[in-house]
Amino acid sequence: MSLASGPGPGWLLFSFGMGLVSGSKCPNNCLCQAQEVICTAKQLTEYPLDIPLNTRRLFLNENRITSLPAMHLGLLSDLVYLDCQKNWIREVMDYTFIGVFKLIYLDLSSNNLTSISPLTFSVLSNLVQLNIANNPHLLSLHKFTFANTTSLRYLDLRNTGLQTLDSAALHHLPVLETLFLSGNPWKCNCSFLDFAIFLIVSHMDPSDDLNATCVEPTELTGWPITRVGNPLRYMCITHLDHKDYFFLLLIGFGIFAAGTVAAWLTGVCAVLYQNTRRKSSEEDEDEAGTRVEVSRRIFPTQTSSVHEFPQLI
């Protein structure tokens, strides 16, 4: 394509990228030194655009940033440390961190997170420490959220809105050493059973296990979640509550009623069958008697001769 025909899409993207990272400027009011950018408590409302490409440590904590743009963040291919705590971030989308695959430390604590996509951390196979604590509106985590963070050694999930976790959520963390789960409203009902058993079988004891306690049901309130596996197994597998007994009673009554109706129908069918056979037999006997009488009237001599003895000469 000639220059006269206008710039192509590739050239536009290149120009746009160069405009975003023009030179090695430092964002306004931030401190840039030795591949480190510090924008702590600068009242930023959005992600700063003039961050040097060679940045390895980025501090955006204590601002009012509401989102992390993947396009801008992805330009920092050497980034290993990102601190975004105490901002207003509501959600992190698919591939937010797609360009920062070298990231080792990520802090998203004390934000307004309501959801984390299953693919958010999918490229962070080198991530060692992840903190998403103090996000009270984060009510759930997908079972594949940490599927690719196989290098994770430190995970902080304190003081969120989590009520339960899928037992598969932590299966892909073979080297995890430190896990915090306290301050969450854990509902230790039957849906929590698989995760409770996983904590026992995997010997994955949270660092704050005595403070990570159940809020429901009443009989398990205050119990550490690492110790409710066996009680839950009894309650959910071998124990029957009032609803279970009512259900069994209802099923028994249904079976009894169905059996009674079936027996009655069987009896009715048997009676009808016997009556039909009896009538058929009586009709056959009447018809046979009629035939004999007719034969006697038509062939009286022959009939009598059959029964007479031959005369002696």
Automatic annotation (TrEMBL):
Checking InterPro entries in the record gives: KCNMA1_auxiliary, Leu-rich_rpt, Leu-rich_rpt_typical-subtyp, LRR_dom_sf, LRRNT
Q: Where is this protein found?
A: Cell membrane
- Extract the Gene3D superfamilies matched here: Ribonuclease Inhibitor (3.80.10.10)
* One of the record's GO molecular function terms: potassium channel activator activity
Q: Pfam families annotated for this entry?
A: LRR_1, LRR_8
Q: Which PANTHER family did the record assign?
A: GH08155P, LEUCINE-RICH REPEAT-CONTAINING PROTEIN 52
According to the UniProt entry, where is the signal peptide?
Answer: 1-23
Any transmembrane segments, and where? 245-273
Asked if the keyword Repeat belongs to this entry, the reply reads yes
What is this protein's name? Leucine rich repeat containing 52
**Membrane topology of this protein:** Single-pass membrane protein
Q: Which UniProt keywords apply?
A: Cell membrane, Disulfide bond, Ion channel, Ion transport, Leucine-rich repeat, Membrane, Repeat, Signal, Transmembrane, Transmembrane helix, Transport
> The organism sits in which domain of life?
Eukaryota
Q: Which residues form a coiled coil?
A: none
